[in-house]
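Run log // design_07
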């Protein structure tokens, strides 16, 4: 009973902490001044100063009026002028800062609505029945949505959602213990494959450009942390490792004693055949070899590769039609080959 009560208290505390993060106002500073003097303090200072200047204006104006009524020497109006200027200046600063705060709150409302529409924010009802929203956990799906928006905007050479769905289905059907990808880029297809892996499986993604390898490592790490926070996601997310280097040297060297169940080729099209031949000694019987852009590069960089897998007795190969990433009007597809070389095959 004590353990159950402690567990319930801990869950209630965690839920309270999550709800405190819900519907945060825009308090992020935009410049050094906002770091030094936050808006609430600025509003107090400008409002108080404007009120003080107004009071001083009334006092100095009253004194000036008395001098004029007595007909004494010409009065000095500089004090009144300074007070009037201060009143107008600080009142204007107060109003401008207040309007800026309202504009930022309105902007946050628009951002929240866009996040809900894009699936990055979820709507919930708290214990008091209030409708609220909060950002979703950063997991593989969260990162994939952003990579897709990046891909569409800048026409990035990711595999894309259409071919990605085909790839995920192939990986899930094969249920590999070890999958290898050549050509990581930002990690889009690595995350798609990782989500399709069975529990305990592993994906190794090899990228030759160290800058992209670092980008992919970051996204893969973020996705893994998110998956750990969710049991359901964690159970289906396989381990994903990003290697930096030339796959033509990495494959025969570091994987010589392992058996590859799925090999996805998405690097330089003219090097696909070299990637495949470097991996062949490690391919398991019945291994699935999937090559991206087998439609758009069929008569270009993939000509030798396609001729090899379609004519070699080591493979049974077929073309799976789809469309080019981010271009539904451009035909493309995946070349899906099954390795039938057998246990005795060695390069």
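design_07 sequence
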């Amino acid at each position: 009973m004590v353990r159950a009560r402690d567990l319930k208290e801990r869950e209630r505390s965690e839920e309270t902490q999550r709800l405190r993060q819900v519907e945060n106002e825009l308090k992020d500073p935009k410049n050094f001044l906002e770091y030094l003097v936050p808006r609430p303090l600025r509003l107090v200072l400008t409002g108080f100063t404007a009120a003080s200047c107004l009071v001083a204006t009334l006092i100095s104006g009253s004194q000036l009026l008395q001098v004029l009524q007595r007909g004494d020497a010409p009065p000095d109006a500089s004090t009144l002028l300074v007070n009037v200027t201060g009143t107008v200046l600080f009142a204007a600063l107060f109003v401008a800062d207040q309007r800026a705060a309202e504009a930022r709150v309105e902007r946050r409302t628009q951002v929240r609505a866009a996040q809900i529409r894009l699936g990055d924010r979820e709507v919930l009802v708290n214990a008091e029945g209030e409708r609220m929203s909060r950002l979703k956990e950063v997991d593989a799906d969260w990162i994939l949505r952003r990579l897709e928006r990046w891909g569409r905007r800048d026409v990035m050479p990711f595999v894309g959602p259409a071919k990605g769905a085909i790839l995920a289905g192939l990986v899930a059907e094969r249920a590999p213990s070890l999958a290898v990808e050549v050509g990581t880029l930002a990690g889009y297809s690595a995350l798609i494959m990782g989500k399709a892996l069975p529990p305990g499986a592993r994906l190794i993604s090899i990228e030759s450009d160290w800058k992209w390898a670092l980008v992919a490592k970051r996204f893969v790490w973020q996705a893994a942390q998110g998956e750990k926070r969710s049991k359901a996601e964690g159970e289906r997310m396989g381990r994903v490792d990003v290697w930096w280097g030339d796959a033509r040297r990495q494959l025969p060297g570091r994987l010589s004693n392992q058996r590859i169940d799925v090999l996805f080729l998405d690097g330089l099209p003219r090097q696909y055949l070299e990637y495949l031949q470097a991996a062949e000694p490690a391919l398991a019987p019945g291994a699935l070899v999937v090559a991206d852009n087998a439609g758009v590069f069929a008569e270009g960089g993939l000509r030798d590769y396609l001729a090899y897998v379609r004519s070699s007795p080591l493979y049974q190969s077929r073309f799976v039609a789809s469309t080019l990433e981010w271009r539904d009007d451009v035909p493309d597809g995946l070349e899906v080959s099954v390795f039938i070389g057998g246990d005795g095959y060695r390069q």
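The radius of gyration is 32 Å.
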